[in-house]
Amino acid sequence: MRLHRLTVTAFGPFGGTQTVDFDELSTAGLFLLHGPTGAGKTSVLDAVCYALYGSVPGARQGGGQGTALRSDHAAPATRTEVTLELTVAGRRLEITRQPPWERPKKRGTGTTLDKAQTWLRAYDATAAAWKDLSRSHQEIGEEITQLLGMSREQFCQVVLLPQGDFARFLRADAEARGKLLGRLFDTRRFADVEKRLAERRRATEAQVRDGDAALLADAHRMQQAAGDAMRLPDLDPGEPGLAEAVLGAAAVARSTAREQLTVAECTLAAAESAQAAAGRALDDARELARLQQRFTQARERAARLEEGAGAYREAQALMERSRKAEAVAPALDLRESADAEHRRAAAAEARARALLPDTFTDAGAAGLAAAARRAAEELGGLDSARRAERRLAELLDERAGLDRQERADADVLQEAEAWLDGWEETRTALQTRVDSAQQAAALAEQLAVRREPARQRLKAARLRDQLAEDTDRAVERARTAQEEALRAQQHWLDLKEQRLTGIAAELATHLTDGEPCAVCGATEHPAPARKVAGHVDREAEERALAAYRRADEQRAENERNLGIVREALAAATAEAGDTPTEQLARETEELEEQYEQARRGAAELHAAQERLRQAGHEHERRVAARQEAAVRSAARVGHRERLESERTALEEELDRARGALDSVAARAAQLERRTALLTDAADAARAAEDTAQRLKDADARLADAAFRAGFDTPRDAAAALLDDDAHRQLQRRLDAWQNEEAAVRAVLAEADTAAAARQQPADLTSAQLAADTAARRLREAASAHDAAARRCAELDRLSARATASVRRLAPLREEYDRVARMAGLTAGTSADNERRMRLESYVLAARLEQVAAAATVRLRRMSSGRYTLVHSDDRTGRGRSGLGLHVVDAWTGRERDTATLSGGETFFASLALALGLADVVTDEAGGVRLDTLFIDEGFGSLDDQTLDEVLDVLDSLRERDRSVGIVSHVPDLRRRIHAQLEVVKGRSGSVLRQRGAG
Fold first, then answer.
1. pTM to 2 decimals?
2. How many CB atoms sit inside 10 A of residue 709's CB?
3. What are the helix (H) ranges across 577-604?
4. What DSSP string describes 817-867?
5. pLDDT for 358-408, tens place per residue?
6. Cα–Cα distances in Å, from 361 out to 20, 377, 682, 687?
């Protein structure tokens, strides 16, 4: 990487535009950057860093890029800008960056914030012109970082060599060196590996402890299941040997449980045999008792049968007579049926004759039938008269209906005439209402179009009034904030000028006898400046600057708010106009009232049209009803005349048919009743004669059947006959006696029953007691066997689960052991790590060894071959080893700590270390050539000879086509180095003066 040209505008202390031509400065190889304290030498380096990375080195970065980088001396309309032209990776590029800028508004008062801008261009040698590549912050940042191969922090350490940092590095302990090297070489990934291993160790340890806890829980369950047969190991989760101890105790418990199960099985088998023998003895005793009781009961039943033998023979005789009487039963049933039928027929005949006149008392069945036929013939002659009577009633109903129709039509005609007389007036009124509603609807549509604009204008007017008040308040706040900012700025500038006036006294407070001055490098301080009354220190200036920045930020915020309120006021005024809000409110209210009135009138349109349509239909219906009523009235006159003529003829016919009765119906009812009575009486007389003959025939057949069955009279046969219920009861008695006799005979004939009767009575109590005792012992043995079996099964299950847990935990234990060893090794706590070096320290030690080797090459030349830097991995005190740095003195042949070097020796040792570190970091970053380097301060501590040797080493860098810029106050360097860039400060800002090698 080679720098060509740098242009800064309104950046840091530079109020205007300043340009640095690095090509001219680099022709001599070495160039000097000098100027008074606070002039802006470091700001030149900050501008280079900002152009490349968009930010400045660490402590100088400040709180915000926009305000911290802008020059306080710049004109308000001048924007801060940095442009850097460089060659990197064979490409000539130009980078331009503009930080955020709070500029004055082009119209009105106040400020507005412009965003940061970045441009990247590449030079096209073929076209001899610059070509735009990108305007994206992110793309440009990624492109530059990729081309340089270094982060901003690495660039600041490699290209902008801060000698003070490396002097502290030489005197620092291992911990401080580790922090600096970690930032330079980015070894955070190795620290992350240590952290990751420690986390994995804790995680696997927790998993192992959880697994052991679960294993111990299973062991406790096994102990509960085994009782006193198992002893648990006195170990905690995570301790070695826990799994083996638990499995061994479980094996002993299972063996003991199986022995107990074998004993329980033998006891159960013996109890089962004893219970079976006692059961058989009890069954034999029960069988003997049953047979003995059976024999006794059979003897008792035989005695009872003997006592009831007489009754059995009587029942047999009764059953025999009943069987004989069953042959006469059909004749008896026939005679009883005929007798009942005859009695019913005679009673019916008596009832029928009682209803007839006395003239028919002695008449037979034939005479009654003849009289019935004569009455029926007379009844048939009255059919015509009945039809005439019904027609006469219909005629009367028709005439009444005609009268009702005539009255109804008269009412219809009267109502229609009255309604039609007012039709024209009604139609005119309804049409007028329809026309009014249509006019109101049209007006409502016109007013609806005007409503929303009026509302919006009223709303804008109210907003205009509110914004006008807000604008007045915002103007007052902006004016007050501007005055406060101006007062704070003036106060800060006064304090800054006072501090610059007394800066010598402030620098003198840090002088120590024997230590070089940070300005001139002298080690003697005969007359240091003294602080005067009212001296302004750095803290007071920074407080004033912070107060000014806060006031300026508040001013900018108030002006932005004022601009926003004014823009809103202009928009509201453009919409509302200049009309007062009260007038717009009155006009809007009047418009709303007119619209509501028109809308209510328009709402009546549909109802009015519907009423007009209904009135037209009613008019048509009334006219039609009047015409129909007139037609019906004319038709009723002829119909009424026809009905009157027919009524006269029917009345004459009915007078002839009624006779002495009131009506034809009464005469017909009289004849119908007489015919029915005569017919019923004739039928009853014939039925009585027929049933009497059938009864006589049944008596003859009954007498013949009784004689053939062996009975003297039919009455004897009827007495011997049993009904079904009595026959069944008697048969059951006979069958029961016979079955009982057969059963008793069979029991008494059984050989085993007779043999049991000859033995002694059975002792059931003793047999039952023995059986109960054997059953109780069997239950106890079975319970003990079940408990032993469950114990074995539970121990087997828990042992299997414990074995599976141990097998499952085995890989986890192996992983834990492996991770714990690795974590201890990388953390430096393991016994295998003899030097107790952490992994990050080990990597940094290798880097430090490379840096020491690269620095020694230049340190030997600077010290005339006297000093050599070596890396040491010895432990210091109780700390860890690996980051020690010693210097070997060739004059004494001894190795000592770098903290023992003098001020000048420390400078050129730190310079050699910085150059060596630059080479190592460059090689690690991909071998990007760094053709431009800067070295900051420290040359005032060197004597002339050492200074010449140091400059020779720096001048030798030109052999690699490099240019080195030295930042220093040392006056002797101005004589030795001809190419110079001077920073001159003034009240209006600093300026740059460049002088070439010639």
1. 0.40
2. 18
3. 581-603
4. HHHHHHHHHHHT-STT-TT---HHHHHHHHHHHHHHHHHHHHHHHHTTT-E
5. 777 777 777 777 777 776 766 666 667 667 777 777 777 877 887 887 778
6. 170, 23, 12, 17
